[in-house]
Amino acid sequence: MSEHNLNWKYAGDVVVESAAMHTARAHAHELGVEAISPAIGAQLAVVAAATRAESIVEVGTGTGVSGLWLLRGATNAVLTSIDTEIVHQQQAKAAFTEAGITANRIRLITGSALDVLPRMNENSYDLVLVDGDPGSVIEYVEHGLRLVRPGGTVLVPHALWRGKVADPTQRDETTGLFRSLVQEISASEAVVSALSPAGDGLLQITKPGV
Predict the structure, then answer these.
(1) Helix axes of 173-187 and 137-147: crossing angle, nearest 10 degrees
(2) SS3 of 158, please?
(3) Where are the alpha helices (DSSP H) in the chain?
């Protein structure tokens, strides 16, 4: 194993997840949901804590793994999470309860994010996590940048899409969408961004403050 791969593996192995996270991750596996890696989860918690997030929007509830990580960092935040799958959200709700997160800090919306996001207030949220349908990732990010306040951040896990984005011979549609997103964001002067190789990539996009 190369030095790079050893470092990448260690960055994930060193992360300690709570019992609720382990349960949520097991349910994700059972339901075929691709949960974020522990390394990405730890980064989400750091960003949430560093921004002192109080209001978070999540596109793609899954079984609650990413939500648990966000709320670990943002201990007073309210999480609004959108997903089309009510069964997944029921599992997430159970995970939040197991973690001791009170119901008034969780708002689960069952429906299409492309229907819900346009109705949400712009410049009103501290963080937006985009982890929904990969085919709509660019649209989700556009909505996310509208929703976050100046100084707020949009987070996109799976940004290296299973290690394919960095390989120019990989040309499937999903890989192309993530590759285009990373390139467009990196070239934009309207945002500040960074791409972390943790897990299968975490794109961090911050709207500069005014």
Answers:
(1) 30
(2) coil
(3) 3-13, 19-31, 38-50, 65-73, 86-98, 113-116, 137-147, 173-187
pLDDT digits (tens, 9 = 90+) for 23-40: 999 999 999 999 999 999
Residue 131 amino acid letter: D
- 8 Å CB contact between 165 and 2: no
pTM score, two decimals? 0.96
Place of tokens 């709570």: 18
Measuring CA to CA, how many Å separate 174 from each of 37, 51, 124, 204, 205? 19, 30, 30, 19, 20
Q: Which amino acid is at 7?
A: N
Instruction: Specify whether the CB–CB gap between 209 and 150 falls below 8 A.
Output: yes
Dihedral, 207, 46, 107, 118 alpha carbons, nearest 10: 20
- pLDDT for position 8: 83
User: What sign does the CA torsion over 185, 191, 194, 200 have?
Assistant: negative
Q: Are 88 and 61 in contact (CB under 8 A)?
A: yes
Q: Assign 210 a pLDDT band (cuts: 50, 70, 90).
A: low
CB 114 within 8 A of CB 139: yes
